[in-house]
């Protein structure tokens, strides 16, 4: 909060206290956003902003990987056209990143080049006529390779897909949606709207979710279909 940390002011904290609130990759990203010669202003809001910024980079990588996998599945051509405008801009991002890192390890400026790469990649990968573009697969692979080289290999931030974490997030989302539907069913039952209540129960049953009304409340379980 723009104050120098000191024991006398009681405004200091330990690394383990930060890591209890934020993942290590977010903290590392936060540190890289400021030039190492500049003072750091630690607060939770700035770390939250860093978390969102890092997620943008991770989302771009997921998008690129998904598009690459799709193009490979439909046997899209992989020839590379060096004169392609997108390829030229990707190369400019590479040059800007290297230039920034050579400028006294200017990581904040290097990250600006990374975000420009993300912006360009998102726009290219989301084009409706991507399948009709000659060399689209190679272009996306080139962008993904540069993103991995700059963020993972040079800056040391793991942005590749964590399948285990993805599965956990998906499971948590499914559980949350099921519990939301059960709450809506309970509200319908309280209003004696039996049609809606039975409809929710039957639809969940079709999806392999059994609802049990017990004296201690509602329980649900998955069944093999």
General description of the model:
There is one protein chain. The protein is mainly alpha-helical and 225 residues long. The protein has 2 domains: 16-154, Isoleucyl-tRNA Synthetase, Domain 1, CATH 1.10.730.10; 163-222. It is built from 8 helices and 2 strands; from the N terminus they run ααααααααββ. The chain has a two-stranded antiparallel sheet with strand order 1-2. β1 and β2 form a beta hairpin. It is flat. The relative contact order is 0.09.
Strand order of the largest sheet: 1-2
DSSP summary: helix tally = 8
The CATH homologous superfamily of the largest domain: Isoleucyl-tRNA Synthetase, Domain 1
- Large-scale geometry: flat
Radius of gyration: 24 Å
Proportion of strand residues: 5-15%
Which architecture of the largest domain does the CATH hierarchy give at level 2? Answer: Orthogonal Bundle
Query: What is the domain total for the residues?
Result: 2
* CATH topology term of the largest domain: Isoleucyl-tRNA Synthetase, Domain 1
Residue share in helices? 55-70%
Roughly how many Å apart are the termini?
Answer: 56 Å
| H and E order | HHHHHHHHEE
Sheet having the most strands: 2 strands, antiparallel
Helix/sheet category: mainly alpha
- The count of DSSP E runs of length 2 or more, i.e. the number of strands, is 2
Which key phrases capture this entry?
mainly alpha; two-stranded antiparallel sheet; 8 helices; 2 strands; 63% helix
């Amino acid at each position: 909060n723009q104050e120098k940390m000191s024991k006398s002011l009681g405004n200091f904290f330990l690394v383990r206290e930060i890591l209890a609130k934020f993942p290590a990759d977010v903290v590392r990203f936060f540190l890289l956003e400021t030039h190492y010669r500049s003072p750091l202003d630690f607060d939770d809001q700035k770390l939250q902003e860093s978390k969102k910024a890092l997620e943008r980079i991770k989302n771009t990588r997921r998008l690129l990987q998904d598009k690459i996998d799709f193009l490979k599945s439909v046997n899209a051509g992989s020839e590379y056209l060096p004169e392609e405008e997108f390829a030229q801009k990707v190369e400019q991002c590479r040059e800007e990143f290297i230039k920034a890192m050579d400028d006294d390890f200017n990581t904040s400026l290097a990250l600006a080049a990374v975000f420009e790469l993300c912006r360009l990649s998102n726009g290219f990968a989301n084009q409706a006529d991507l399948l009709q573009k000659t060399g689209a697969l190679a272009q996306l692979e080139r962008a993904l390779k540069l993103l991995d080289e700059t963020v993972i290999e040079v800056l040391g931030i793991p942005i590749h897909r964590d399948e285990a974490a993805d599965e956990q997030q998906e499971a948590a989302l499914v559980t949350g949606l099921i519990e939301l539907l059960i709450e809506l069913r309970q509200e319908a039952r309280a209003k004696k709207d039996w049609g809606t209540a039975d409809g929710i129960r039957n639809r969940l049953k079709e999806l392999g979710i059994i609802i049990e009304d017990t004296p201690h409340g509602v329980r649900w379980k998955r069944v093999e279909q």
